[in-house]
Amino acid sequence: MELLFGIQDITVTSTTSSKTVVRQGCNVSINITVENQGYYSETFNLTAYANTTIITTLTNITLTSGNSTNITFTWNTTGVPYGYYTITANATSVPGESETADNTFENGWVVVTGVGDVNGDLVVNVLDVILALVNAGSV
């Protein structure tokens, strides 16, 4: 008699942000897609990072076998220093999970900058004015 054991595997498949350039003090939506590629329902935690700083941790997420879910939350950039931030999501491994490399997904970036920095280069100058004027009629 052959015994078969099921696979436990939580996978983060994508991270996206609603904006790539955001003014400090404003909000940006972060969307994370997580998939349960295993044979059992699993409960896990999901942490989102901007570089190495935790944006949020969501706990006790339950996902049934073979299904995925999109989780969206708001990152408030009040007090976040100007800079370029890589967005990463990490799902905790579940008991018995052996393939954990796919529990982390890094993709995309967000620039946190000041008022008037239209091109997201962290400097307000004549190039921003030109871009604002050129694009003023395109809304």
Q: Biggest β-sheet: count, sense, barrel? A: 5 strands, mixed
**What is the correct CATH architecture?**
Sandwich
Mean pLDDT: 89
Number of domains: 1
Structural class by SSE content: mainly beta
Q: Which segments are poorly predicted (pLDDT under 50) over 5 or more consecutive residues?
A: none
Oligomer: single chain
Percent of residues in β-strands: over 45%
Order of helices and strands: EEEEEEEEH
The CATH topology corresponds to Immunoglobulin-like
Residues in helix, %: under 10%
Radius of gyration: 19 Å
Q: Helix tally?
A: 1
Widest sheet: strand order? 2-8-7-4-5
Ends: how far apart? Answer: 68 Å
Counted beta strands: 8
User: CATH superfamily membership, which one?
Assistant: Immunoglobulins
Task: Describe, in plain words, how this protein is organized in 3D.
There is one protein chain. With 139 residues, the chain is mainly beta. It has a single domain, classed as Sandwich (Immunoglobulin-like), CATH 2.60.40. The chain is built from 1 helix and 8 strands; from the N terminus they run ββββββββα. The strands form 2 sheets. A 5-stranded mixed beta sheet has the order 2-8-7-4-5, with no helix packed on it.
